[in-house]
Amino acid sequence: MRTTTRVTVAALAAVTLVTTAACGRSDSPGTAAPSEGTAVSEGPATGEVTVWAMGTEGEKLGEFAKAFSEENPDATIKVTAIPWDAAHDKIANAIAGNQVPDVSMIGTTWMGEFAATGALDVTPDVVDDDAFFDGAWDSTEVDDVSYGVPWYVETRVLYLDTDLAEKAGVSPTPATWDDLKATAKGLKDAGAAWGINLQPGQTGAWQTFLPFAWEAGAEIYDDGTFSFDTPEFVEALTYYQSFFTEKLAPTQLPEGTLEPDFVDGKIGSFVSGPWHIGILEETGGEGFMDGVTLAPMPEGKEKASFIGGSNLAVFKDAKNRDAAWKFVQWLSEPETQAAWYQEVSDLPAVESAWQQGDLADDERLKVFGDQMTTAQAPPAIPTWEQIANVIDTELEKVCKSGEDPAAAAKAIQQQAETIGTGL
Amino acid sequence: MATVARPVRVGTGSPAGGEAPASSPAPPRRRSRLRRRRSLVAWGFAAPFVVLFLVFMAWPVVSSLFMAVTDIKSRDLRTPFAVNFVGLDNVVTVLTDATFHKAALNTLYFVVVGVPLTMGVALAIAVALNTGITRAAAFFRVSYYMPVVTSIVAVAVVWRFLYRPDNGLINEVLGWFGIQGPDWLGSTTWAMPSLIAMAVWRSMGTLVVIFLAGLQSVPKALHEAAALDGANAWQRLTRVTLPSIRPTILFGGVITGIGFLQFFEEPFVMTQGGPLNSTLSVSYLIYNQFGFGNYGVAAAMAYVLFLAIVLLTVVQFRLLGDRDETGTGRRRSILALLRGSRPAVEDAPVAAPRGGAVGPADRRDTEVPA
User: Fold this and answer.
1) B1 touches chain A (CB under 8 A)
2) Model pTM?
3) Shortest CA distance from B365: residue in chain A
């Protein structure tokens, strides 16, 4: 036994050494990405374009893209729907195995990571970046180079029980931080168990919190350096914490209770994205939304909200690159964007698409459209998901166990520096 | 492809050990040529297995080892070999990480409380099924095994309902007695015990079956003799039954310990590691790190967990390995299995000399020609 195992161990060690000896990073400066993508050929698109898309988009895009094939008779679009849960790993595996589609939908917070692998094609001059909301375009840029085009966006606003606000005699559209606090207090006094619901940590809480930091004037990231440990950031943390210390917001809300509690008037208001319109109508019945006010996020030193959504990226190893970019270009035309909204209710990333149809007339959508102009994207860096996780964890300590906001800001800063930007 | 060729050469000759008697008086040259041909033929027959083993077992292990000693991250997906060798830096990073400490403590809590509890409950049920309950025994066996075969995702939904703070079944029942139950999954104190209770419920079924098999192999004569000597039921349990099934208990302890150290599904479906990381396990942290694209650190963490599992197993063998001559074939075959595949375990002196018994793995290995 000993001989065999010893030889096996030695062989394993040798294999590991041989493989590791063959490696090493190439740090030659020539590998820096060009800031401008190679031009795309003129004329209509030809050939087959393979597209990966998640969720509803994946289900509906195939049918929707027939219009593109009508304009470009020689081109066919082949859409593969992939579930959101598996999407990140599937794209990562595709990159590792070099079996990529031509185009893929990519969550805004994944841009940094996938761009850093060098698998995404730099955006050529097919679209006008000024046509998009600033926050949306920012989410495609990694180290000042754009690797995709925004497809659709979402942002966060305040959902508020109008009747309860009237009963309490407080403004349903709080304009400032003080107003929001007063509204939350009023809603609670008027009979709600909680004046407002703000996510107290755990996955995704940073999306609710960061708007407050931006409103306070905090700049969390600039050109390779993090600055979480600033008075503005601490101010935002303190303000966020006060909702919990003053018992205006619940520190623990069991999954799936937000909507029924809001419908029952137990929760006076909450911050969320456009998908909640549908969920509330489902929970509260047809017409329930008539009793709900959508208000823009209150203003601190500045106005801000969180911008999310998805981008479209073309892979460097795409088999049909030019046609792929032409398809992306077509999807970001204002008319296409407006038509796509009719199809799946995805809010257009192109500003001018908001001037037609429902998008221009609907009062609720207008709130989202207005909010979008001041919404910001988180830094598009490869390590963002990990840093966001740190914020979630520290935020949870602040909200639930009363950690000092200054200490939390310091902890976030220190951990973010350890993690690095990954660029 | 050099990576594939190497291990093949390593064991050359080993399968031939069983064919050519060592004392064969054939002339050296002819013998060696014959041997070489025989061993080639033998490898030809073994090739399908060897290839499958190398591709699906050895290669992933070697790659994860490779990951653990390099600074590979998600950005290296396209060029996995263009990374730097960092030696044990990843392990240092892991061992100095405060979140890892937290996760390690949580896992330890889960194992130290969960494993004995699972084994105790399973043993009690097995004894009850074996002695007391004869009517509808099959029904009870199936019932206790049910949680093992149901999907954790479906089970989690039910358990989340049970644990709900205001209208959950548990707090409702507690309310009848005037007790205000806590928010089980939302409290840093109660979240872990809640998950342990769920894990015990989920994993005891297998142990009940194993213990039942062990109990049924205890000779009735021993019990009768003890009863004649005036031993009461409790004495017969602790003095006759338990020592007789010690190998079964060891086996149960080892597989439960391994399963519990890799504790992942419960927090994943129930609490996402919260609140305040109070249910974050090492496996969950590894999963997160892979998700963040820190492949090197995650792989190093996985090896640290692997070492912990080996250590726990060694400790269990020390505690439960028999001190008298009641060992049976099963115990020895586990030992042989473990010693065969994890040679680093310093368990050898405890096991090898006893009674001259040598496991099958040992026998084959000693005949390998030098």
Assistant:
1) no
2) 0.76
3) A1
